[in-house]
Design brief:
about 140 residues, elongated, Hemerythrin_metal-bd
């Protein structure tokens, strides 16, 4: 499985969020590499735990930005983040019980990361840009 690399089209225009997204891509690539290598389940679990922890930090940061700009779809975006938390916890439990393959987990992470940025995060770019040009930076 090939992990996509960060591309400029994933930029949301907020340097801190873009850097966090880039780090999430790097963690997801490490997860995919763990799946490909013979490093074993323990390494995969450690990488997954790190990715989940960092994603939670990122979600919190992103939500603060959206709150500061009074983003009208904040609650929906928070629900998307909560869905991701629930889904990844379920997938991790399924992996532990042998109900999910490592490849399925890595593919989910790849798909979620790119789709969430392109389909969900891109929606708040206009609100952030309006805030930055109007009242100052968030």
């Amino acid at each position: 499985m090939e992990m996509p690399e960060w591309r400029s089209e994933y930029s949301v225009g907020v340097p801190e969020i873009d850097a966090q997204h880039q780090h999430l891509f790097a963690l997801a690539a490490t997860l995919a590499e763990s799946v490909r290598s013979s490093s074993g389940q323990a390494n995969l679990k450690a990488v997954l735990d790190e990715l989940v922890c960092y994603a939670n930090e990122h979600f919190a940061f992103e939500e603060v930005i959206m709150e500061k700009i009074n983003y009208e779809h904040l609650m929906y975006h928070q629900k998307m983040h909560e869905f991701m938390r629930t889904r990844i916890n379920l997938l991790s439990a399924q992996l532990d019980k042998g109900l999910l393959t490592e490849n399925e987990l890595a593919e989910f992470m790849e798909t979620w990361l790119t789709e969430h940025i392109i389909m969900e995060d891109m929606r708040y770019i206009a609100a952030v840009a309006k805030q930055e040009t109007g009242k100052g930076k968030p």
